[in-house]
Amino acid sequence: MLNATNLTLHYGGSQILHGIDIAAHPGQVTCVMGNNGVGKTSLLNLLAGRHPRSGGEIEFDGRKLDRLTAQAMARMGVGYVPQGRAIFPMLTVRENLETGFACLPRSERRISDEIFDSFPVLAEMADRRGGDLSGGQQQQLAIARALITRPRLLLLDEPTEGIQPNIIAQIGRVIAALRDRGDMAIILVEQFFDFAWELGDGFLVLERGRAIMQGPKSDLRREDLHARLAGHATAAE
Amino acid sequence: MSALLEVSGVSVSFDGFRAINNLSFNIGAAELRAVIGPNGAGKTTFMDIVTGKTRPDEGDVRWGEYSRSLLKMNEAQIARAGIGRKFQRPTVFEDQSVADNMTMALRANRNPFSVLGWRPSPSSDQRVAELAAEVGLAGQVNRKAGELSHGQKQWLEIGMLLAQEPRLLLVDEPAAGMTLAEREQTTTLLRRLAETRAVVVVEHDMDFVRRLNCKVTVLHQGSVLAEGSLDHVTRNPQVIEVYLGR
Amino acid sequence: MTRKPFILRNPSVLVMLAALAVFTVAVTLMSQAYGSGAVPTSMVKVLGKTLCLALAAVAMDLVWGYIGILSLGQMAFFALGGYMIGQWLMYARTEAIVATSLAQAPIPPTPLELQEATASQIFGVVGSSDLPMVWSFAHSLPLQLLLVVAVPGLLALLFGWLAFRSRVNGVYLSILTQAMTLALALWLFQNDSGFRGNNGLSGLQNIPGLDGVSQARLSIWFLWASAAALGLGYVLIAWLVGGKFGSVIRAIRDDETRVRFLGYPVEGFKLVVFTLAAMITAVAGALYYPQAGIINPAELAPIASIYLAVWVAIGGRGRLYGAVIGAVAVSLLSSWFTGGRAPDLALPGYVVKWVDWWQVALGLSFVLVTLFAPRGIAGFFDLFTRRRESGS
Amino acid sequence: MKGIDLGLDALSFASIYFLAAIGLAVTFGVMRVINMAHGEFIMMGAYTGYVVQTLIPDRTLSLIVALPAAFAVTFAAGVALERLVIRHLAKRPLETLLATFGVSIALQQIAKNVFGTQARPLTAPEWLEGAITFNDVISISTIRVAIFVLALLFLGLFLFIMKRTRLGLEVRAVTQNPGMAASMGINPDRIAMLSFGLGSGIAGIAGVAIGLFAKVTSELGQDYIVQSFMTVVVGGVGNIWGTLAGAGLIGALSKIIESLNPSNTLAAQTFMILFIIIFIQFRPRGIIPQKGRAAEA
């Protein structure tokens, strides 16, 4: 589905990513992990076409991509759930969902029942403004909004950040269901270790813009991965 | 020891979202403090309130020996009172030389007419040279700030802060975008600075905070979640829950 | 480090002063009054006015190019300066004429009668014969000269204080300055404003007390005065922006929030710069209108202030010589093209008459300059100097 | 009685301001683009009306043709301006102001060259020429009623487009968060172009309406541009109700000041502008300010 190699990225004078390789396959969740400020979000921004890369190759559906724009990526089938959710605050929930119609042919522009089945709260709140929703509701809306575009690759940036546990569990079930459908590749940026370990099929750990650990779940041990992540924070214990 | 800065019961909301929620925070006259917390914990808003950029909805912020309220002062007055702020992204005046940038920051009367009458003197030139040397820009004083590397700009900004001779330094993510060597230099400098004044560092790179080796305040959802040594707070189960590993 | 004197640190100031001196001497030597007569008096007046416009442009550059306020109200200050000096010019001259005609009367007029007769002479055109309050000082040259800087200065101070303290910024501030100009223009357009409504003040080219001096000579004197004013204004502003003050105001232009965190009272700096620029602009106006001969409220049309901004943009903002080059080049070209002297351009099927099409070309050239040469004409000098530096 | 008459006058004034400003509410209010040539788009609309009238003698029919024609002409001009100039000056608002000013003086001069300096007539159909008389004091000319109705119609149209159409949804999404809108597959450039065209097209229609009672000259737009910007700024940028409130305030105010000193409309306008300058001191973000953190940036 997606295969990117040797990605580099600069913001102004500083280099954020140093030669990252990442792949995503249908029916699998690839987790990108690491502490704050290591470049996870930048990597996702790059893949979503929101920031130009300074080097590296990206292949999507077997096609090499040169310059990416966010709207071209969206139309090609990349759904994006940003960190902080980026709900359109003055649009209603329904309108927020409808923004994704831009990716669909006119005849298919409707909100499927599936969406409301997965996130019943959105059906209840359909006519409320996005900005009035709680954080957890906004997160569900952000995921639903990305699903409206019928993506084949879904990019999720810290969907559990600042969300209460029961909603996290629900989000986890939705992601698992999407994965199990088998036709969608998912890249999940996550700091919540248990959540990521549960869902992930492959892992990539970043530190200061470099991959320090990478591989499928079968090749990794939970303890090693956890130690690698928490190592810096808890080494003194 | 009485506190240099005393933040008590401060709250502020944007669009019904509570960015800061009943926050209280003290810092002494010569102290190094790290403030950590996940995104959206209110770290930047906290700095905005102390420096006068954002007015809190309730609470009080008091400063100095006479406990003056900072809430009645504007940004410039607060800066003149002795609070310096380093921004996350280096903001130096790219169009002007390193020396000009530093000269502007030098402690001197700030009113327009005094500035008009200000003339460079041997002592001001020397002060600029000293500061440039201190932040590793000795050979660069006549270069335009815009030509400096990202790390050098961060250094220049720190130099400008030093030129202001503040009693409290607020530093927002100094390590972002720095190389390993630059980080080490920065930690050393911050620790040295904290010997004579208060320094508050907002950072979420744990490694960096560890090297600062100081008291840590953990913010979460706009209030203080834990405070103490790094080891102490990293053992706090709530801190682990919201920030560290989960 | 040893510090060189101000002038030596700023070679562009020296070049500008030298160019101005050469220009003034050359025009004088070719004038009808003092030289060969190659340059007709009307042309001398155009050149003198152009120097005044250049001074206004330099002040505009201070406000826009250095501190970042795109003021669309500069012409209000320019015209106010003109009105203030115009009051004395018109009053004193009318009084002299009235006095001569009344001198033949059997009973010599009292001062009050003289004043009344003068007033009805001036204000008859708007159906009034009383001298309005605002003309109280019109009899006195020193007082009116003081008002030339005081009135626009106070207006700028008041307006700036209101606008800056509420932190109105960017385009909002521009629109607000434009509204200020429009309000002033509308007020002056009224017949009972005390400034003769849309008739404005006229006959300003005749200087009271200098009846024996020919216009040819007067025009040269005004050229000298304008050149001196431009030179002085240029040096003053160059000195201002050369030191730490300049450093601070450029910093305010680039990132005013950051300057606040350095402890500088940003509003105070803006106010000082805005007011000072208003006063310099007013002096330029006070020298301009006696050469133009007439001033009326149409001079304050919003469009006029925008022209000033455009000259600065074309010349190269943030560089004082850019402002001078822009003002001189565009205003001289404009008067050449619109004066009917430029040859028509014959296109296949259509003859472009420059009188009609110059404005179109000018308008489009603003667009091209903003799009493709944001640094203006002065930007091209950079190319030269850079090439020279890299070549050596 | 006098009060009602004054109220009607104020209402028709407000309608005119609203009509002139509503296009700006799209380009300036929503897209945050300063278009100094907006007044010239109004002028182009008025001249389009005049040209149509010279081709179609029947005044009613010509008016019916002129409205869409004016929209088409100015829509095209707006799209061209956005694509050729404004797009390249994104994030440089002060330079946009200057460049569009250049366009403005070029358009004015072109109009002068084509149509001459004399005012051209744009005559209203007979059914718009009379007045509706209630009694001795209160009467209102039909054309003013028509302009009021037109203003209402525009308000409705604007609300319909923004709230009920796909274009409106995309415009709102792009204004609130262009980056996220792009990630939903919306093309922000295309939206900017279309909404700029829409705002300009509305200016064209307003031009036809204004031409019916004002003289059509190349300087027609100049008379409205500053007031139109003030209307939008006073009302609060980014909100059509704000624009309506701004137009209402300015309309009412100018009539009230005028009625205090009926001999002098110029002084009234001066005082109105002074009032607005002072008003902005106290409500720098207008009558209906935009809320939220985004508005502070």
TrEMBL record, chain A:
It comes from the Bacteria. Pfam families: ABC_tran. GO terms for biological process: L-amino acid transport. One of its GO terms (molecular function) is branched-chain amino acid transmembrane transporter activity. Residues 2-233 form the ABC transporter domain. Keywords: Amino-acid transport, ATP-binding, Nucleotide-binding, Transport. The keyword Membrane does not apply. Signal peptide: none annotated. InterPro entries: AAA+_ATPase, ABC_transporter-like_ATP-bd, ABC_transptr_urea_ATP-bd_UrtE, BCAA_Transport_ATP-bd_LivF, P-loop_NTPase. The keyword Transport applies. Gene3D superfamilies: P-loop containing nucleotide triphosphate hydrolases (3.40.50.300). SUPFAM superfamilies: P-loop containing nucleoside triphosphate hydrolases (SSF52540). Belongs to the ABC transporter superfamily. NCBIfam families: urea_trans_UrtE (TIGR03410). This is Urea ABC transporter ATP-binding subunit UrtE. It comes from Paracoccus methylarcula.
Automatic annotation (TrEMBL), chain B:
GO terms for molecular function: ATP binding; ATP hydrolysis activity. The keyword ATP-binding applies. It holds the Pfam family BCA_ABC_TP_C. GO terms for cellular component: plasma membrane. The keyword ATP-binding applies. Keywords: ATP-binding, Nucleotide-binding, Transport. InterPro entries: ABC_AA/LPS_Transport, ABC_transporter-like_ATP-bd, ABC_transptr_urea_ATP-bd_UrtD, BCA_ABC_TP_C, P-loop_NTPase. It comes from the Bacteria. Residues 5-246 form the ABC transporter domain. PANTHER family: CONSERVED COMPONENT OF ABC TRANSPORTER FOR NATURAL AMINO ACIDS-RELATED, HIGH-AFFINITY BRANCHED-CHAIN AMINO ACID TRANSPORT ATP-BINDING PROTEIN. This is Urea ABC transporter ATP-binding protein UrtD.
UniProtKB/TrEMBL annotation, chain C:
Its main location: membrane. InterPro entries: ABC_transp_permease, ABC_transptr_urea_perm_UrtC, LivM-like. One of its GO terms (cellular component) is plasma membrane. Keywords: Cell membrane, Membrane, Transmembrane, Transmembrane helix. The keyword Cell division does not apply. It comes from Paracoccus methylarcula. The keyword Ubl conjugation does not apply. This is Urea ABC transporter permease subunit UrtC. It comes from the Bacteria. It is a multi-pass membrane protein. GO terms for molecular function: branched-chain amino acid transmembrane transporter activity. It holds the Pfam family BPD_transp_2.
